[in-house]
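input
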Amino acid sequence: MKKVLFTSTALVLTAGVASADIAITGGANMGLKYNGTTTTVHNEIDFNIVGTGETDGGVAFGASIDLDADSNNSTSTTNAVSDPEVFISYNGLKLSVGDIDSAADRGGLSDLGYDGIGIDDVAEEPGVGTTRGFGGDDVRVDYSFGDISVAASTDSSASGDWAIGASASFDAFSVDLGAGDTGGTDFWHLTAGYSAGAISAKATYGEVGTADAYGLYVAYTTGDVTVSAAYADDGSADAYGIGVAYDLGGATVAGAVGEIGGTTVADLGISFSF
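output
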């Protein structure tokens, strides 16, 4: 699944035309990761550049790109420019083209640790590498009204590939649903969430072809400390773990330890937003 780092607006530059802005958001992390045999020094950096504007008639438009890099010990991976997207929107209706998320890519579990130890992947990826059937879509339509949002997307280069998704929130409860077909394999998944006061929880179930998986997540927050636990099973292996995070305000120190298919995994580090 696609990983999303902590992000916040860090800089806004006024562009050279009326009603247009360029915003730069960013996040980074660093720490230690353990995969059962090896401890790795790991870090990631993610910058997102978004340009937005609006016509005299009220049609909003924009474009975004990501600048990503990560390293494990002395091995680095740099993606100079990735995820190019362009959109237009009007009255809650939005059309996006580019390297975009599937309309069904919503819901699922929160992972544990500063970078994630992978408990959520077991719940969300029944069958190795299936990623709940999500494809690499390049055309997407979204519509939002009140607390409900719906979307549909497709890969224009792959005949028959499609995805739909819907999300809704009602007081302390939320529901996310996704379904579609990628490469002739159909998939669907459902996530229900609850968040009120110090307690939050999620439960998810999904199928990709003949494979299925489910998972549970619960967290308790007291002051700046959050303690969380998760369990997942995809029929071939189960996974469970516990995590602790301390909110520093703009940065979070977090760690987790768990077991995936009999292998102990852990991480410990800090995440920033700027």
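quick obs: Confidence is low (pLDDT under 50) at residues 1-18.
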